[in-house]
Amino acid sequence: MESTTSQNDGAPLVPFVKGGVDPEVVAIKQLLKLLDKAAKSARTYGTKNPVAQRFFQQFYDGLTSHLAHHTRLALLVQRDQLFFRDEVVYQPERDTTGDSFAFKMYSDGIRELTFHQGLTPADLSFFLDALWGMPSGEAGSDDETEDLEDDDDIVTRLWAKNLDTITLVTAEELVRSSGYGLDELELQIQGYMSMSVTSLRELLDRERAMAVPEKENQTAAGQEGAPGLGSGGTTGSGTSRNRRFQANVVGYDVSQEEHEGLRQEIQRETARDATVYILDILTAVLASESSSALLTTLFEVWDSVLDGLIRAGQWTLLETVLTLLQDAEAIRPDLPDAHKQQLAGLFEGLSRPERLKAIGLHLNRAPHAKTEGLLTLLLIMKQDSIQGLCSLLAGLEGPAHQAVVMEALQTIARDHPDPIVRGLTDKRPTYVRNLLTLLSRWNDPRFAESVEKTLRHPESAVRREGLRVLAALRPSGNGTKLVGLLGDSDETVRLTAMKILATGQYSAGFSAWAPFVTADDFHERSPAEKRAIYLALKQTAADEAVPYWQGVLTEWSWTNRKKKEELALLAADILGKLATPPALAALELGQKKGGAAVRQACSAALATANRQHRYPMPSAANS
């Protein structure tokens, strides 16, 4: 790794390098890295951006320190490289030729760039502006710079300024200095540009000095013949005629490898996503634009961009844009209040009804559409978007898409649940079940009363989900309303309610059960349901239900005899499990007065209770 050391005599910082390496070359490489950063920052953010200004100042300080000891710095410009003393001191990274300031200068015809002692910050700033073009509002107010056309090349801009501290040598100068008979390719072939001189400027000065005697000789030769005529009556020499009609267009040789590289670069540029390209441009404008009117227009364009991305379902790009806009004030701390309000309006407008509707339409049209980035959009929305998000959730058809909206509502609506609670009365079963899932995630008992309303929903799946959520929100207490579900038309709902009551966490007097267990049609229920009801009755009413079961054991009837006998056998089993003194007494009575099957069931239940030793067997006198 290179390091720097300070000279005691005030010399500039010189990198510490290994033996055999010119320290000046290493120092210039470091300088040009700073120039590269300054040029890229100025191009992207404008010269007034703090980052660009910092890189600019670092490069200027290093360059002036170098010029103080060496008076000038001359760099030979090749296609994408800069040379100093036959050493490459600048070369861009792979696949970034288009961002290289060496390539930019070379393509505009510059073959040598020289910085001279006395360089001022204004001169250097003008050079960077000329290198990448001067963004509106970034260049200074100098009359000379304001007169430049936007499409002027670097050479035109710098010559118009006529700087003494920055000089150039162009390819056109080299061609002209060669005697007008060779193009640039021929110059390179003949070694013209690789001659051992301090700089191309010295080479030009030498060639021009040699050209003066040659012109004087040609003038003298022309005076010997007829005016304007050469030998043989022709008008001047062929070289002179070519000189007058030759176009001042200078090109450069492109090798097959370079041609292939350019082709691939153009192909990549052509294949680039147009939307991303536009977003990059808008981002650069946001970072650098200083015109208030243009910034106002820019935020209006951003609003249209949000619309387009939402309608197209480009959630990932949308997430990138929203993240950028959230950081806009950090990027541009100088934004006026009016533009800050515009920026806030972009976020407030995300939940406009037409945009939420567009989200729903896109997701329903593309059932397998990816949703990465959609959650970010929904979470940015404010409290006033809750009702709109509920409508969006109700209209979505795909469970995966519904899950994204539910996740957003879980965060946004936690402290403002009224739209969720109101939605429980909706007739759309999938929507209500999703809302019940939301309430169960919040696990707030104050929603239990609202959830009870769903027990009357016409869709049995909703009633079952409502039961599940209600049991989670209110795991104990009065179970009378759950007993009332014995009248539900769906057996699964009834069994689910009995299962909850059988946990022993609820209480319900026998008076709540009586209308169901004493009804004539009770015998028609399935054996599984009757057993579930008796187990729930045992847990909620306990001894209050013993007289009812005792009557079942001793009842004698000619109608439904077989079904009543099945019910009596089930009652005997439940009384044995209850095993309280009243329950055991009822079993003893059934053992005496019931039918043969009932007496046998009561004996078995008493034996089971006796083995469990829960209570002492009651005496016959007590019974």
What does this structure look like?
Among the domains are: about 5-220, no CATH class; about 480-623, no CATH class. Helices cover about 60% and strands about 5% of the residues. A hairpin with a 2-residue loop joins strand 4 (about 80-85) and strand 5 (about 85-90). It is rod-shaped and about 150 Å long. Mean pLDDT is about 80; it is low at about 1-15, about 135-150, about 180-195, about 225-250 and about 620-623.
Output the keywords.
623 residues, mainly alpha, five-stranded antiparallel beta sheet, two-stranded antiparallel ribbon, 61% helix, disordered N terminus
The biggest beta sheet reads: 5 strands, antiparallel
Task: Quote the distance from N terminus to C terminus.
Answer: 103 Å
Q: Strand order of the main beta sheet, please? A: 5-4-3-6-7
Strand content: 5-15%
C-alpha Rg, in Å?
46 Å
* Helix content class: 55-70%
The overall average pLDDT, rounded, is 80
The total of beta strands comes to 9
The coarse silhouette is rod-shaped
- Low-pLDDT regions: 1-17, 135-148, 180-197, 224-250, 619-623
Q: Provide the structure class.
A: mainly alpha
Number of helices: 32
